[in-house]
Amino acid sequence: MLGITRGHLFRLLAAILCVAGLVWLGMTYLIPAPPSQIIIGTSPVGEHYHNLGTRYQGILAAADMKVELRATNGAKENLGLLNDPNSGIQLAFMQGGISNGALAPDLMSLGRIDHQIFWLFYPAGETLTDLAQLRGKRIGLGAEGSGDRAVCEKILAVAGITYDNTTLVTVAPENVVNNLDGGAIDAVFRNFSPESPVLDALLRGPQYRLMSFAEAEALTRIFPYLVRLVLPKGAIDLARKMPGTDTALVATTNVLLARKDIHPAVVDLLAQTTLQAHSTPGLFRKVGEFPTETDPEYPISQGARDFYRNGPSFLNRYLPFWMTNYAQRFLAVLVAVIAIVVPVFNYGPKLFLWLIRDRVRRLYRRLRMVDKALLLEPDSARMQTLHAELENIARAANIVPMHSSDLFFELRAHIDRTRRHLASVDAQNGAAKVA
Fold first, then answer.
1. What is the largest CA-CA distance in the chain?
2. Which listed residue, 157, 222, 336, 368, has the most CB atoms within 10 A of its CB?
């Protein structure tokens, strides 16, 4: 009735399919659902990163996020796995001094989470006050290729301690005490997990001494990723005054690194997890010191930065993770639909008016053909055809809606004019027959 043809219907159907396809593509690729499982690269079982991973695993389980812990040799292997998109590792723990954002452009930080402290213990029979005194001794270090060992070697190197003048050997944490007691090594220099029973035994054992880094401040200037910490007198055992004096230590800060293609919803969830896991006070940290919203080596995730500054979003504050995800995707699709529908409603009336005008134009073309035929002195049979055509045009004109009455009355005026012309030609033809 409105002159809508199969072509119009086909174009309308094609438009609907295109919009549906765009929405589907948006939901699938632009707003994909977050994964239900993540894999975190840690460290050997029992060491600090693996203990952290276990803590994260428990926190994330409450949000129905499954966490697989991938035991590795530590920071260096974690870096390689993160840089390999086929490894399946999306997150890993890392320490400062191993790499940076320029060398690993596909990675981002979710904030610094705690300290990685480097402890140097030696037998109580002697006194070490300077790193240079280690020259020529046998020093136990972390595993070859580990981030722990890499940083320790750098610190020793600036003090003149190298493989050329000192014996640097690998000592597993569980063998440290036996090697020190048996004389296999003269000192051990490596990091230990704060929960490590080996560290507790070394700190409390009267046969071991913890070296105070007199050059700690200088080391932080040479290596910007290092920080100076102080273990206060009596912090381990106040009654026994352990340690007996304030002890200067050097440390890096650990970071939770992620691939930049990780889902934003997972970033939000991990930011909540790091805050829950690391915001409490500890031996070397104050309340709220960790996690940090800045990172000296890697670009920090904007989502994590916003969370640390402003806290959880409205949805994250009141809804569980799985509901937050669906709500965010629904809102995103709703905004997209509104962005599409509003212009449609805006242009819909214009399109309808165009269809009406197009219909009127076609009626005018038919009317003009009737007028043109009248100029050719048609016979009676042709006149009957013209009468029928004019009545069809008049009936078709009735489809013009009320809000376009100007078009309707203008068209009716021209139809009436043509009807009068047709009647005049009929009268002339009748007079000619009488004569």
1. 149
2. 336
With a cut of 50, which residues of the chain have pLDDT below it?
A: 1-2
Between the CA of residue 201 and those of 161, 258, 390, what are the distances in Å? 27, 35, 109
pLDDT of residue 122: 96
The three-state (H, E, C) secondary structure of the chain, written as one string = CCCCCHHHHHHHHHHHHHHHHHHHHHHHHHCCCCCCEEEEECCCCCCHHHHHHHHHHHHHHCCCCEEEEECCCCHHHHHHHHHCCCCCCCEEEEECCCCCCCCCCCEEEEEEEEEEEEEEEEECCCCCCCHHHHCCCEEEECCCCCHHHHHHHHHHHHCCCCCCCCEEEECCHHHHHHHHHHCCCCEEEEECCCCCHHHHHHHHCCCEEECCCCCHHHHHHHCCCCEEEEECCCCCECCCCECCCCEEEEEEEEEEEEECCCCHHHHHHHHHHHHHHHCCCECCECCCCCCCCCCCCCCECHHHHHHHHHCCCHHHHHCCHHHHHHHHHHHHHHHHHHHHHHHHHHHHHHHHHHHHHHHHHHHHHHHHHHHHHHCCCCCHHHHHHHHHHHHHHHHHHCCCCHHHHHHHHHHHHHHHHHHHHHHHHHHHHHHHHHC
- Round to whole Å and give the CA distance between 366 and 303: 65
**Range 37-312 has CATH code 3.40.190.10:** yes
Cβ atoms 135, 160 nearer than 8 A = yes
Cα–Cα distance between 81 and 299 in angstroms, integer? 19
pLDDT tens profile 33-90? 778 899 999 988 888 899 999 999 999 998 888 999 999 988 889 999 999 999 999 9
Tokens (6 digits) for 434: 């009488």
CA distances from 429 to 164, 246, 372, 374, 423 (A): 127, 127, 17, 12, 10
What residue type is assigned to position 249 of the chain? L
Buried b (16+ CB within 10 A) or exposed e, 147-184: bbbbbbbebbeebebeeeebebeebebebbbebbeeee
